[in-house]
Please model this.
Amino acid sequence: MVRREDVELIRNRALSMLRAAQQHLASGDYDLAAFMAEQATQLFLKYKILELSGEMPRTLVIRQLLGILGEISKTQDKISRFVRENKSIIIRLEEAYIASRYLFKRYEKDEVEDLVDFAEKVIDFVRNIQIPHEDEKYG
Model:
């Protein structure tokens, strides 16, 4: 059993990472802003999956996390449409995980603004997704 406070801890970490991405963007630290935008998105998706299923997914890939969320929430069509409509920026956000840490890539302000804005969009999109018949997941 997953405790509610543990689920909330993951949610709060994700939202803190989003705030950090916004702060790094504002201060001109674009590489860290890109990385934190990806981390906020990834962790918020993991939080939502944990909230709905009681299990923490192991993948780091945002598209796979969205797929898992679609399966457990029975919203595959809605999530598939979201992924199709945003595929390019989802891929860019996924690339930020590696590029900002290991590659000789420097992020520019406008590119990171898009990534941070999209991280906010993903969080807003998944925030209210629920499973159709809510079972008790917490002890």
Notes: Residues 49 and 68 are 7 Å apart (CA to CA). The two ends are 6 Å apart (CA to CA). The mean pLDDT is 93.
